[in-house]
Each structure stands twice: as C-alpha cells, then as structure tokens.
Amino acid sequence: MAVSLPEETQLEPEGRPAGRGRPAATLVALSMTLVVSVLAGVALGPTVVPPGDVVRFLYAALTGGSIGADEVTGYSIVWHVRTPRVLLAAVVGAGLSVVGVAIQALVRNALADPFVLGISSGASVGATAVVVFGVFAGLGVFALSAAAFLGALGATVLVYLAARGPMGLTPLRLVLTGVALAYGFQALMSVLVFLAPNGQAARTVLFWLLGSLGSASWESLPLVTAAVLVAIVVLLRQSRSLDVLSLGDETASSLGVDADALRRGLFVLTAAVTGLIVAVSGAIGFVGLVLPHVVRIWVGSTHRRVLAVAPLAGGCFMVWVDLVARTAFAPEELPLGVITALIGVPVFVVLMRRRGYLFGGR
Amino acid sequence: MAGTVLSLCELSVEAAGRTLVDRLSIDVAARRIVGLVGPNGSGKSTALRCVYRALKPTSGAVLLDGTDLTSLKLRDSARAVAALTQESHTELDFTVEEVVALGRTPHARGNHPLTDREHALCRQAMDRLDVTHLAHRSVLTLSGGERQRVLVARALVQEPRVLVLDEPTNHLDVRHQVELLSFLRGSGLTVLTALHDLNLAAQVCDHIAVLSSGSLVSSGSPAEVLTPELVRKVFGVDATVVRHPRTGTPQLLYDLAPAPTGTPAPADAHLEGPHS
C-alpha cells in the first residue's frame, strides 16, 4: 500500500512520550519491577524455589538467621548460585544500557553500541588466549576476567591512539577506527581458535563471546557493580552536557561545553566499564544498542531521564534474558547473546520503522 | 571606540600551513549589528568560530569588554557570547522546549533543574520568536524557518551580551529571511553576523566588514562599503548600486555575465538601472 507522506510528516503535535509527564512514577514502577524480577530470577530455574522460601533464605543469609536442616540444598541454590548470578545479570544489563547511551552520545551515532569501539573484540582476544593457551594460569578462576580486561584495555589504547587526530577525537574517526580494529582483533582471535589443540576450546570461546553469566559468583560482583554505579552517577551529573554534545561540537562550545574534553572523558569511562562488564559476562550484544532507543521512545531524549531509566530497564531486561537462557533448554544453557539478538533484532526493526521515532533524522 | 563590547584584534588563524584569517580587526559596539560579508572561503566562518570559541586563534585575540576570551573558561565566555552555528541539526529528537532550555547550560549549576525564573525566561523567548505552539514538537520535525527561530530562542535564553550568527538566512525562504533579520533589527541585541546576501546585509547592518582571502578589505557603513568597485574587486561581479526607494539603503543589482559570443543577445540586455 502506498504510504501517505503528509501524514508521516504531521507527527502528533502533542506527541509526548508516555513517560515524559511523570518521571518519578516511572522510576518507582521500574524499581519495583526490578526487585520483583530479581526475586523471580532467584526463585525460578531447573529447581523452582517458592517465593516465600526465597525471601526467607535471603533474609536468613543477610541477617545471619537460621534455616532448617532439610533446607540446606534450597538455601545453597538461592544464596550461592542464583542470587549472585541474578544480581550480576541486573548489573550487567544496567551497565550495558548506560554505556550504550554514553557511547551513542560520544560518537553521535544511532547505531553505536558498547562494542563499536573494538573493546569487546580486544577482550575476546585476551579471553581466548586464556582458554586456548592457558596464559595467566596463576590467577586461577580470575584468569579469564583478568585477560579479558587487559585485552579490552589494550584495544582501548590502540583505538584511542589510532583515532586521535589534529581535531581531537572526532566521532567518525572513532567509529571507523573501532570497526577496523575490531576486524583485526577478530582475525587474531580466529587464528587463536584455529591453533587451539582441541574443539572444546573453540566451543568455550564461542560460548563466552556470545555472553554468559555461568561463571557468576559473589566474588565477581563488587568491582563491576561499583564501576557501573560510578558510571551512572558520573553520567547523570554530565547529562546536560551530553544533551549539548548531541547538538554538535560547535554548538557545544558556544554553550560552554568543551566537546573534545567531554568526549575523552566519556571514552575512558565507557572503555573501563565495558571492559569490566565483558570480563564477567562476555560480549552480550544488542542490549547496549536497543535499550537506549527503547528508553528514549518511552521518556524522550533528554539524557537526565534516559540515564535514570536506562539502568533499571536494562537490569530488568537482562534478568529475564538470563532466566530464559537457564531454563529454556535446561540443563543446557543458551548463550545470552543469542537471546538478546533474537529479541533485540525484531524489536529494533519495529522501533526503527515506527512512526514518531526520529533518531538519526527523517 | 566607546561602547565597544566585542573586538577582534589582529586576529589570525592558520591551519595546515594556510592562513585562513589574516590580522583581522573588527569592533562591535553595543546594540549594533555588524555584518561580515565576503565570498565563499574568505574566512567569515573561521573568524566567527574564534568568537564562539570553537577555534583558537593562531595569533591576535577576541576581546570581550577588553578581556581576551581565551583567558576565560569556556563556560564563562558562553554566558556572554551566544552563537547560531551552521551545523544546526541534532540526531536526538529533543522537543523544542528542551532545546530552548539548553540555552541555560552555561548558567546552570551542573545538573540542577532550571529555576522558576529560568523557566519564565524560556517561555518569554519562545513567545518572542513565536514558537510557543511548537513547544512539545520534536525538533527533527520542524521546517527550516521554525528550526532557526527555535535556535534564536535558545540563544536569547543564554542572555548573551553578543549574539554571533553564521549565515543565519541559509536555506530559508525569502519570508523567513526577512522575518529573522527584522527580529534582529528590532531586538536591541549586539550582533555579529556573517551574511551572504549583500542586499539584506545593507538593510540590517549598521556596519559592514568585507573579507577577502582572510583579510579585511573594507569596513564602514553599508553606503560606504557597498560600491560597484568593491563588489567587482571582491566578488568578481558587476553590479549597479541603487538607493532603496523607501529606506535609502544601498541595494545592488547584479549584471549577468555577457552572453557567449555567437549567441544573439536579448533585446534589453544593455538596459541599466532599475525600472521602478
């Protein structure tokens, strides 16, 4: 059917997105949803623990209370296995969403995600080296995370040095450099996998590249949680500057915002947080790309609102994605990236085609 | 000069071994409109970039009330100098209201919400530029004229001492060009603007500075500056200067290049001067 163009351009003049009117109510509702999601994530799984028991076990664990002798298995599942994993899912989802918002502002590109600057590919090379060659064996269970973080750091430095030009870090140079270097890292990783002594290594690498929270433990939580919280606070404080940055570098300087300095700060912040996230969960795609867009459609583009809502929404989303990953084909686990892509791709296409959402111009 | 708010003082900008602006000096007095004209690539935008701090001069300075702008924090100079740059697009679909409010950025403390006075200021500016009815529209859906009015409103909210505009009438139809310049004329603001249209420049500006290859070649009132000799020398165009019948400002009538030899000339091709 023919598209009626005049109607397309006559976008609802009163078109305020639903969440724009009452930001506080949106935040409260989302926070409650996140708490319920986390409880559900802890309760559900191959073994279902009744919600009442979940709350009781968590209370016991937090206050040092006692539980029945016959409940030790359930308690162990809830406290030692699922709770850290579900919390990590929430943190990773929140972090990827926030970093996605920041990166899209940084490179001023609608299609950017936390991995566009080659950070995840660098991390993958590090992790692959651990799995295939056993480097960092001395670090034990942290070898993979440490190597991934170092890989991310290496990639960041390379991208930064390569993209730096006489005009500072311009968005286009950043994206082009990131994409080009990502190909390089992927090739390097393929070589590593190719040289791997057995197929199991390749399988592990692939699984890790698509993202997994299978290695979640209480120990993996503090650092990444702190990083994500710091990122949220720092970005929220810069939210007006982020708005201004999206108006263009020249307009930014005329409004008193040093675009180049802001971009350098954002680059360091997003690289560090992405590196830490990738180190504990692999490269989970699409969350950092799609969530920022969903949130903008919901509450508008102002970064203050987007940055307040995105972490909560991303946290909820990831908790449920991880639940599906654990339960859909239990005891087999699906890679998280598979599920986020299966949900994310159609959602993204629908959003892009939806009239009224204009990121990237008409 | 007494009452000078902004002065470009021996301003030079070099990039990649080329001199884009060469020892340019211009004074802008309070509540006056100064126009910067010149052919493409004559350094107008480059000079203006130094005024709104998107570029650092290689030598010389831009003085605001006698203070070198580069000695001020970017934020502090943005409180005094607002700008309409040529890049006016954003990718995010902010509402008109939100974009206008961003004019308060250099004044606002960090991430604090705007005060009541600032909200009132935004409403006033939107009223003045007649964009109040667009408040909740996405800026991405606006026409060129509407967008330019929104950006002027944003600049007003900045409460600047000087407003800098880089080709503000680009891509606007005649009506919107006239409306925008009429607004500037009546606004009482101190304005430094680059303009392409010499006739509009003659009508709106108190003072015109002509740039060619980065250097100032002429400066003065429109009547002093816009002479056939200058237009020929700087723009390479033959023009006849006439007086606007009502306002008396000089207006240019351009002569088209003579038809290539062999083509029969139209009967009235040699006519000179206006008919009405």
Automatic annotation (TrEMBL), chain A:
Principal cellular location given in the protein's record: membrane
GO molecular function: transmembrane transporter activity
Origin: domain of life: Bacteria
Protein family: Belongs to the binding-protein-dependent transport system permease family. FecCD subfamily.
TM stretches of this protein: 24-44, 86-107, 114-136, 142-162, 174-196, 216-236, 266-291, 334-352
Subcellular location field: Cell membrane
Any one GO BP annotation for this protein: siderophore-iron import into cell
Gene3D superfamilies assigned: ABC transporter involved in vitamin B12 uptake, BtuC (1.10.3470.10)
Region Disordered, residue ranges: 1-21
Listed name of the protein: Iron ABC transporter permease
UniProtKB keywords: Cell membrane, Membrane, Transmembrane, Transmembrane helix, Transport
One of the Pfam families matching this protein, by short name: FecCD
Entry GO terms, CC: plasma membrane
Membrane disposition: Multi-pass membrane protein
InterPro entries: ABC_BtuC-like, ABC_transptr_permease_BtuC
TrEMBL record, chain B:
SMART domains linked: AAA
The keyword Ion transport is assigned to this record: no
Recorded superkingdom: Bacteria
Keyword check for Nucleotide-binding: yes
Keywords: ATP-binding, Nucleotide-binding, Transport
One GO MF term attached to the UniProt entry: ATP binding
InterPro entries recorded: AAA+_ATPase (IPR003593), ABC_transporter-like_ATP-bd (IPR003439), ABC_transporter-like_CS (IPR017871), P-loop_NTPase (IPR027417)
Pfam families: ABC_tran
Span of domain ABC transporter: 6-238
Name of this protein: ABC transporter ATP-binding protein
Organism whose genome encodes this protein: Streptomyces spongiae
